[in-house]
Amino acid sequence: MKFKKLFIISMAILNCTCFTVFAQDVNLGIKKLLPEIHKAVDKDAKRVHEIFKDIHQHPELGFMEFRTAGIVAKELRELGFEVKTEIGITGVVGILKNGDGPTFMFRGDMDALPIKEETGLSYASQEKVYNLDGVEVPVSHMCGHDAHTAWTIALAKSMVRLKDKWSGTLVIVAQPAEEPIEGAIAMINDGMYTRHSVPKPDYYLTFHSGPFSVGTVVLTGGRLNTGSQHIDVKFHGSGGHGSSPHHATDPIIMAGMAIVQYQTIVSRMADPTETSVLTVGMVQAGATYNVIPTEANLKLKLHYPTIEAGEKMINGIKRISDNTAKTYGITSKEMMPEISIKGYAPPVVNSEEWIKQIRTVLSESEAADKIINDERVTEGVAVHDLEIPGSDDAFVLIEGMEAVKGAYIGIGTANADLVAAARSEGKEFPFYAHEPNYIVDLEGITYGTKVATIIALDALGK
Questions:
Q1: Residues 196 and 243 occupy one common structural domain
Q2: What single string gives the DSSP state of each residue in 77-107?
Q3: pTM score
Q4: What is the number of structural domains in the chain?
Q5: Where is the Peptidase M20 dimerisation domain (predicted)?
């Protein structure tokens, strides 16, 4: 997940303390509970920090998170949760029923990235693994999913300690494979709500770490980011000698021409007032100089504002691919390009009502140093008109559940001194997601846990 929108907002108003109070019912009991919340979270903070460092030092790629999933399952079982494992290969769900009331689901993703870490941390990853394609790659948590996983465990611990303060059902989800945007749909396809009997949520919360100061919460009502899909395109040809292209049907030429034409899908078929992106992230064909290969493979990344816009982009890819193949002599159905969808994420659309409630509760309880929100206009630009050209498959888990209140929230996890130093040097941030020096401050783990606990208690409070 790329927090470009949130980062733009934070740069504009990071130095402000933005507490917006709304005329609605507020759970004033949360403020009275703060001492107990602090005590409950702080009591487990050292243990959670050690878990976080262990996960950070032993990262795992998507659908390979067996060790991480085992840690989550063990911790949840010890807390008394009913634990379900191997949902969507490595997904873990913990269920804690605590009387009558709504169901509150908190989701954290577990997977790391094929990036060589350069943080210099004492617990930095040195891992190298063979990915699912059989290629050896370095692995590290340069997007903060280790923090997300730690938050799932820490929230479970704090809510168990505070069981007498809430009523309902708490569901903890440790999701695999967010980076390839395949993990959430894998859990759904594996029957998370059917075969595995996981309760459907009334409230659904997920966090993402961000390189803004610890103590910062980023709240955005309505649509937060784009939907996304990963598309594989395979062009077929007949192959031949490089000196005699007239005896072959060249798939590399087809792929090259299609790549150029794909760009017209955004520039000429998509609404220019909306955010749409089509990136060709991989081109793979051939093995040597003088052989025309029999196939060429492309990997495409799509971002789109609505499901309908995404369907339009995919139809455009199919038409351009087929027509390009026909132009270069492909006539049989068996030789037409193959289009495969490998990953999917719908746009994240936060509940306007619940985001306002969360903003109010955090403000009234003075639980946040800074609340960056979409109710302000900065330099003449309405913040809610900005949109992240990135994606996260989190809301696949509640797609089609119209009554669910969903919230995807940014949590500052960068050391304040590093942020200040970067600002003094004219930089936006000290580091950025997916960069090799991305660092989650340990205090950000504790702070995020307290925010999650406050939100959960507000939703489930007696």
A1: no
A2: HHTT-EEEEEETTTEEEEEEEESSS-EEEEE
A3: 0.89
A4: 2
A5: 227-327
